[in-house]
Amino acid sequence: MLSSACRRFMSSPSSRAASASSRTYSSISATEIAERTKRLLDAKEQSGLSYDELASKLGVTNTYTAQLLMGQAKLTQHTANKLKEALPTASQADIEAMLTTFPMRAFDDAILKEPNVYRTYEAITHYGEAIKSIINEQCGDGIMSAIDFYCDVGTTTGKHGEKRVVITFNGKFLPHIEQKMEDNSAKSPRD
Questions:
Q1: Which residue in 36, 37, 38, 43 sits closest to 87, CA to CA?
Q2: 163-173 pLDDT tens trace
Q3: How far apart, in whole angstroms, are the C-alpha atoms of residue 57 and residue 90?
Q4: What whole-number distance in Å separates Cα of residue 59 and Cα of residue 90?
Q5: What's the rounded Cα separation, in Å, for the pair 99 and 190?
Q6: Residue 84: which residues within 8 A CB-CB, separation 6 or more?
Q7: Which residues are catalytic?
Q8: Average of pLDDT values for 26-36?
């Protein structure tokens, strides 16, 4: 559920204009994306579905579901049919836009000031070197893909009965390669 402050930001013309003017993408309208996001989140709210419930109907993770509604992921035709059924008040124009436009997978730096986002970022940076060391030990020299990647957010109960957040990153391991000349299929840029 979006906070009321976030909803006000998204619905405020001056905020949208400021956000749109700070972007330099020539083919992307931040204002159109923000307005579409607001309409889609309103449709989700009207449906009474949580992200988990909507994700289950779509057959994708809860995080990917949120990304779809926020314009951060590409909608496929297969999922579009399910989305229209799950969110009947979502407009056909918005569904078409989600199908035909490629998302700008970026973020506004201001999002790092939001406490939930900041604390997640802080945890990743605090544990980053340890995470890298364990990935290297278990997989070798390489990285975790953020393309062939699944993210899921849930909760569990701690031993004292407290609610705890569980974030799962599931990314394909991509090994770094030795750049051998005989494996390079591109013609040399040198004469």
A1: 43
A2: 999 999 999 99
A3: 15
A4: 18
A5: 42
A6: 90, 92, 95
A7: 119, 122, 145
A8: 82
Distance (Å, whole) CA 9 – CA 70: 14
Report field, pTM of the whole predicted structure over 0.85: no
Record the tokens describing residue 101, joined without a space: 């436009």
Backbone angles phi, psi at 151, to 5 degrees: -130, 135
Q: Are 40 and 80 in contact (CB under 8 A)?
A: no
**Confidence band for 16, pLDDT divided at 50, 70 and 90:** very low
For residue 166, what are the β-bridge partners? 154
3-state secondary structure 71-85: CCCCCCHHHHHHHHH
163-175 and 142-157 as β-strands: parallel, antiparallel, unpaired?
antiparallel
Distance in angstroms (rounded) separating the CA atoms of residues 87 and 69: 11
Rounded distance between C-alpha atoms, residue 69 and residue 98, angstroms = 9
What the block records as the tokens of 97 is: 């836009």
Residue 39 to residue 83: CA distance in whole angstroms: 14
CA distances from 66 to 28, 126, 127 (A): 20, 26, 25
Residues whose CB falls within 8 Å of the CB of residue 46, separated by 6 or more in sequence, listed in order = 87, 89
**Is pLDDT of 11 > 80?**
no
